[in-house]
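JOB MANIFEST
job_type = single_chain_structure
chain_count = 1
residues = 270
[input]
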Amino acid sequence: MSNVYGGFGNGGPGAVRGPQEGQGDIHETVGAYALGILDDAEATAFEAHLATCDWCAQQLDDLAGMEPMLAALADLPGNQGTPAIGESLSAKPSPRLVERLVDEVSERRAQKRRRGFYLVAAAAALIIGGPLTVMAVNGGDSGTQDPMATGPAKAAFQLMTDKHSATDPSTKVNAVVAMESKDWGTHAVLQLKNVKGPLKCSLVAVGKNGERETVTTWAVPNWGYGIANAKTDQAKNPLYVHGGAAFTPNEIDHFEVVTFDGKKLVKVDA
């Protein structure tokens, strides 16, 4: 059998190549088997090989989906009487058809490679960005700018219009809470200033019915957030954190920023 039909044109674009490939190598038969141009004896022999060869099984899977192209071929002038899909072809396909099939396989593989690249890029972004965010929440002592000050919470805060602010007369901590209604409840973003650490804090939504729901928690490093006379930018920058509550906005009476040991830093009416 010609290598053009068995191996899809050895050396051509998208060529199907098997391990330790050579003239008459049974791995090359996968292309001809996919086209349906093997006789009964050849097809039976290849199917016996296919049952034990993962490589050929993968190649056959890659070549799947060509039936629409073969069906279209049957409608071309000069090709009347082409067997129905699933039946053996009575003649070998023309070199032009083989080239079209090779192009189809090449495009399918290129699409798989592109999807794989995007997934790898997304995973890399998570791997790189994840530790930075965790470090900020846990109060890491890196000298780089805190990503919580420039991340998605800040972007959401700037876009939201329903904002409520307050400064506690005792602690001098300033807080601004932005809210937006969601199908599941309330999305809230906190901007916090003039707070020094080390502290572990929570933003709590207090309902008009007296129920309390924790919106989000975070850690304040030693140098703090939003300190006006601080010597470093990371200490001057306010903290932005966000989270959600099951309350709807009109069910919330106020918000509280409290430490883990129960001290209230500031209260913000909703």
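[summary]
Residues 1-18, 20-24, 78-91, 125-150 have pLDDT under 50 and may be disordered.
The two ends are 80 Å apart (CA to CA).
exit_status = 0
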